[in-house]
Amino acid sequence: MRISVIGTGYLGVTHAACMADLGHDVIGIDIDAEKVAALNEGVLPFHEPELPQVLQRALASGRLTFTTSWSQVAQSADVHFLCVGTPQQPNSPAADLSQVNGAIAALAPHLDRPTLVVGKSTVPVGTAQRLTAELQASAPAGSDVHLAWNPEFLREGHAVADTLEPDRLVIGVTARSDEAILREVYDKLLRASVPLIVADLPTAELVKTAANAFLATKISFINAMAELCEATGADVSVLADAIGQDERIGRRFLNAGLGFGGGCLPKDIRAFRARASELGVGDALSFLDDVDAINQRCRTRAVAAALTLCAGSLKDKKAAVLGAAFKPDSDDVRDSPALDVARELQELGAIVTIYDPQANSTAAQRLPSATYADSTQEAVSGAEVVLLLTEWNEFRSLDPLTLKDLVAQPIMIDGRNVLDRQLWADSGWTIHSLGRGTLS
Ligand code: UDX
């Protein structure tokens, strides 16, 4: 099929490369000419395992190109996937839809034959209905231009697998013919028995925000339990293992620690809450304020633990921060809990050195006042407190004995509950794990 992908961020590049990998002819469009030129050379603007190989394979096959020309996109494709960002507005919890609106306004005047536009961006419920009216009003083909919604559930660090082997496909459509087109796009996945859920437009939009709200709530639930555990001497990891054995609950997304960050969960729950208020059902989602507040408290609790273990003052104390990305296998520092903690440590007077295997340069743009090291060893050298804040594999397997020789004071805050506490304590460290207390 002839497909276009509008927007070449995380979602767009992944979708474009994977659709070409499935055998479609794909043209990606972005307003950023430099990014387009780099992508045509096979250069990715972010770190994502497996994606460089898929991108290069797709470019080499001749089935994928990137452009900045709307007329070329309209000529080359019959199905247009809308993959632009919907960040949080600067001074409001609501979503900023300017990229979505801009893309539709730019594309519509070029649509002079029957076309299907498919939204993948995460939008407030009701957006698809509004966009349908706008598209049909300004496209020369009028009501022959249809809109469908096909929410995306990909996780950073697993983007390729989540696109080519998703748990499910969800499509919101207003016509059988649109469903048929999307079935053809995803034919290979459907043949591989990926479940397909066909819905109306508002349901499809809501599926995405509901899924993210549920995941955020699950993480904040276990982090609320972590606060209870700290107050009672209980162990949140054992608690999570025990309740997670119940299949109705499940163990995944019950890892207590610094909580969630990134470009999706935090802004999506805020936008969802804001949209519910606009719709007059704000009370139904008021619990998401608590989910957000619990999540923010995780960061404060990590800083408080560092302060307590450093005898009540971080002034001029050397702090080593391991991890800056919002999660492992990513260089994304948007709303990163790790970087927030590093910033708070600095505000309390600490001298902060950060090491992240991939995110040093993205972090340095957001927090230039910190020092950045090229290895764990360099970061912890002379440190009076070490904080493990993103659970990269190389941190999980750190050797407490080797590290002890490098630090000035063997104090570790395990913000992700990945270290063997007993081993670290037996090796002479004082270790504090969020939701499990201090051991030495
Ligand atoms: C999320 C959704 O999972 C995905 O379906 C959606 O399309 C986009 O948003 P992503 O932001 O890539 O994906 O990250 P995810 O793996 O969901 O992790 C989100 C955050 O939660 C990370 O900061 C992670 O460290 C944290 N987390 C996750 C926990 O604190 N505990 C857990 O048990 C799981």
UniProtKB/TrEMBL annotation:
UDP-glucose/GDP-mannose dehydrogenase C-terminal domain residues: 320-421
Catalysed reaction equations from the record: UDP-alpha-D-glucose + 2 NAD(+) + H2O = UDP-alpha-D-glucuronate + 2 NADH + 3 H(+)
Keywords: NAD, Oxidoreductase
E.C. number(s) listed in UniProt: 1.1.1.22
Pathway: Nucleotide-sugar biosynthesis; UDP-alpha-D-glucuronate biosynthesis; UDP-alpha-D-glucuronate from UDP-alpha-D-glucose: step 1/1
Oxidoreductase among keywords: yes
Gene3D superfamilies: Cytochrome c1, transmembrane anchor, C-terminal (1.20.5.100), NAD(P)-binding Rossmann-like Domain (3.40.50.720)
Gene Ontology molecular function, alphabetical: NAD binding; UDP-glucose 6-dehydrogenase activity
Listed GO biological process terms: polysaccharide biosynthetic process; UDP-glucuronate biosynthetic process
Keyword Oxidoreductase tagged: yes
Pfam families in the cross-refs: UDPG_MGDP_dh, UDPG_MGDP_dh_C, UDPG_MGDP_dh_N
Similarity section: Belongs to the UDP-glucose/GDP-mannose dehydrogenase family.
NCBIfam families membership: NDP-sugDHase
Protein name: UDP-glucose 6-dehydrogenase
Taxonomic lineage from the root: unclassified sequences, metagenomes, ecological metagenomes
